[in-house]
Amino acid sequence: MNMNYSDEFHDQILEYALGTMPESEIATFESRIQKTPEIRDQIFELQRLHQVVLESMLAPRNTPDFSRQILERIRPVNTSTSRPRLYYLARIGWIAACLLLCFLTFMTFHLSNRINSQLQISQNLDTASLMSTVSSNRVSLGSNETQLIISSLHSPNSKSQSSNPEDRRENQLIQLTVVSESIWQLVDFEANSQETPSPAPIGYIMMDAENKCGYLAVGDLKSTRENLLHIWLKLHGQRDPVFAGILPELQGNKGLLYFDFTTALENKQNGVIEQVFLTEESSVNKVTPKGPVVLRNS
Amino acid sequence: MSEDKSDEIDHYLLKRVASGDEQAFEMLYHKYNKVFYAAAIEILVHRTEADEAVQDAFLRIWKKARFYDSTKSRAFSWMYLVARRVYLNRRKDLQRRGTLISDEVSVLKANEANHSNNQHTETHEQFTQILSELPEAQSRCLRMALIKGYTAKEISEQIGKPIGTIKTWIRRGTLTIRERFKQ
């Protein structure tokens, strides 16, 4: 915090950031911070700190999933005539359209031999043993190997709308988020439709190789309920894997998780990820994997 | 996840929620339901109350998303504020009915939950360490402000210290945490 402010003003900034400022004082304070952008930055920094504290201190096990109940309460307001089955059909249609868009995008770029690998997405849609490759561009779809590239299309006559690297990165993240969520919905729906659950854990990873972030989806983790799942990265040219985090407790032993490996790879000269794998550990172990490998990409 | 990227995604999703996108809403729910649920348990103690409160909180986020202003607050902080208001209103109702367990029990329960969770993060350990280094009253005060969302006035009434002292403790405690996390 800026030490030039009075203690009283520091307290006001804190109260505003934490949301404990009395209602009667908010309007006056907001008019003051509008004139001083640096105060806003401090508020955002404090809010970030608050989020870190909350997320680290509040982590119970067995959190119930109320998403269905909440969505049911939302839907009468949105689409009073919608029915669950129609909802799923509509959702599958949306997912299919999204996948089709990915495929068409890939074909367009592949055929024109102008592949712009802004965002590489690797996946394997064999849902019996769903596993993916990372950063290798290759995707196994049954017995065929191909690759999926997502990149926005625009007319060569029009001016580029996203020359700004920040905008481009944001667009990449949004695309990755939407596609990951879509595929996760499809996989989850298929898994729920099966009469007999998969005997082994399943998972897939979708990653923005450039920014080293993406989504990890896992399911059927019954055997690991008592232990911790550690995420490890095998880097190109390095013998020992790098610890990248611990999977949080998942409702229903499945979930789609956002990850960012930039911190784990911060001091690594060669940050090219060759393999991602998950091990089952009986205690926190950040040095070397000891437990059995539960999931890994080929 | 880097903070900036997470903020960008939250901001984008919340804007989508404001335009009625259920899928974006589900994504936000799955991203934050754990911490929101834990906060509900922390504030309301009773699990059944927390169950209902967390649903009401997310419903309120859905309804109020169009009022979110990214120039005033981060998306997570805005959502958390909305949720916490729901919890605190419910808490007041419980207190009126005399069915709320005292804060001491609540703190004990929260500690039990944390001890049973062996997925302690480095941040968790750091924060616990900072709290343990403070005198008991200050530690309690900081926890009440940061975790439970009490105002300085409310903490002053509960701890029995002047409001100025409470504000100083919160300010100093927050600065300590910030400095320690920067190291």
Summarize the structure.
Chain A has 298 residues and is of the alpha+beta class.
Overall SS class of chain A: alpha+beta
Low-confidence stretches of chain B: 102-119
Please report the two chains with the greatest interface, counting residues with C-beta closer than 8 angstroms to the partner's C-beta.
A-B, 64 and 69 residues
Which radius of gyration of chain B do the C-alpha atoms yield? 17 Å
| Major sheet description of chain A | 4 strands, antiparallel
- Helical coverage of chain A, percent range: 25-40%
Trace the largest sheet of chain A across and list its strands. 8-7-10-11
Count of alpha and pi helical runs of chain A: 6
**SSE class of chain B:** mainly alpha
Using the alpha-carbon principal axes, give the shape of chain A.
globular
Largest sheet geometry of chain B: none
Strand content of chain B: under 5%
Order of helices and strands of chain A: HHHHHEEEEHEEEEEEE
Rg of chain A computed from alpha carbons, rounded to a whole number of angstroms: 23 Å
Secondary structure layout plus pairing:
The complex is a heterodimer of chains A (298) and B (183).
Chain A: H1 7-18, H2 23-34, H3 37-57, H4 67-78, H5 84-111, E1 120-121, E2 139-141, E3 144-146, E4 148-149, H6 165-193, E5 202-208, E6 213-219, E7 228-235, E8 242-246, E9 255-260, E10 273-281, E11 293-296
Antiparallel strand pairs in A: 1-4, 2-3, 5-6, 6-9, 7-8, 7-10, 10-11
Helix pairs in contact in A: 1-3, 5-6
Chain B: H1 3-18, H2 22-44, H3 47-64, H4 75-97, H5 103-116, H6 122-133, H7 136-146, H8 152-159, H9 163-182
Helix pairs in contact in B: 1-2, 2-3, 2-4, 2-5, 3-4, 6-7, 6-9, 7-9, 8-9
